[in-house]
Amino acid sequence: MWGWGQSVRCCALCRRLGAWPLIAAAAALAPLPATADQKPESGRQAWVGADVASNVWLLYSGVTLAPWSGIHDPGLRFRAAGGYGGYSYDRDADVTPDPRRRPRATHLTAQTYFADILVGYLARYGELTAKGFVGAAIISHEISPKDEETVAIGEEVGIKGVVELWLNMGERGWGSLDLSWTSAHNTRTARTRLGYRVWPKLSLGLEGGLNLDSQGECRMQGPSVSGCLRDPTDDGRAELLDYARAGVFARYEWGTGEASLGVGVLGDSLGDDGTELSPYATVNWLTQF
Question: What is the value of pTM for the model shown?
Fold first, then answer.
């Protein structure tokens, strides 16, 4: 499972942590063989996680229920997840090209929360496990003082879709890919991991992700796009790097759960100074119950 976990005020946590948690329940555990003396696998799974970057933080948790099957067996799924966090950034008071005439930048702080209610299905195709979910999502960003240049502010409710893929590669290797989209602030996320079991229960590997929303789209397409609020005299544009992250992770699994730790760098462009790289860390714990 993942937390994830971004420029722009609207999905800052998602953009900068990649984590975010709209995707908190991303990849399932690799299938574990059952023996005759084992109890039937539980159909309930819960997780918690935290993401931290230079000036943003997020806590999240969730639960997945498989009412008529084990949690790793094909069948219907119900999922609920939510989280809360905060972030801050600086905004220049105007866009005059002469830096000597610019007032001091304004420091803005924000609180954000999200929640998902989803229904889905798990299917198996050989070594590939696929999960798909649809449902409703709510995302809120409250920014103080008011940011006149953001299109992603306040609370939005929308539909959401999620696809999660897990592939076993040989005896020790595995890969995962998690994709999600919600109409709430037009938020889109993608995350992938490639892992190798250096010991039967310990995996090490690489991770990467991309997070984008309505404000990020405005910044990438340019200030003249209809519906974007940036000053038309400001020709600065964001790049894809602003919304990407890359790092390494360690994942330890046991019979009924897993824990993972990831660290790396992400594009940090919440302010007006362009893309910078910032460190991030994310920790997640998952268990059946």
Answer: 0.79
